[in-house]
Write a structure and sequence with these properties.
The chain is an alpha/beta fold. 14% of the residues lie in helices and 24% in strands.
Length: 218
Amino acid sequence: MSKMSAIVRLRRRELVLGAAAALLSPPVLAADGARRVVTPGQTEGPFYPAAYPPDMDNDLVRVQGRAADSLGQVTHIAGRVLDKRGAPVRGATVEIWQCDANGIYNHPRQTGLQRRDTAFQGYGRTEVTADGGYSFRTIRPVAYPGRTPHIHFKVNAPGVGRLTTQMYVAGEPGNARDGVLNAISNAAQRASVIVRLEHAGARAPATLLGVFDIVLDI
């Protein structure tokens, strides 16, 4: 890797981590001993990567070797992987995958692959920090036929197990009709996977921020 490439990748990482720091407060256990709502498991869906992309870091907007960013509204998603008491789950790995701004997944079973935005990474992976934190730089998810906007998540926690779930966007009209989302019968669990995306402010007016804490059943 050239010195310039290393500097560019470092700056991308600083942007992602900076957004995460702005979103997250220090981890605090519930003072009243209350338990967190466990994040519900959901289907992996048909488009989990058949092969991992060469570039699979936590910045899905910029693919290594491509000069331009992907299509779509840049969105920072950050949160923590926690247990039911609110303590961080250390050593966990978080994966995400989603369709591009055209509604196309990077998967051989996806129809319309010729329309795929090849500047969008489509899949990302990161390890949590010591306080259970993670962050991704991606795009605002879009709807496609039969599904409301969503991002797939998979958490692997050594010695604990694996959780696959999906994150949804608050205020999307398709949420009320989405069969996967509404298959979550527990109202509190259903609400826990619906995330409000806020504008980042004057410094990055076209960028969105969202917090999605993932609570494992431990």
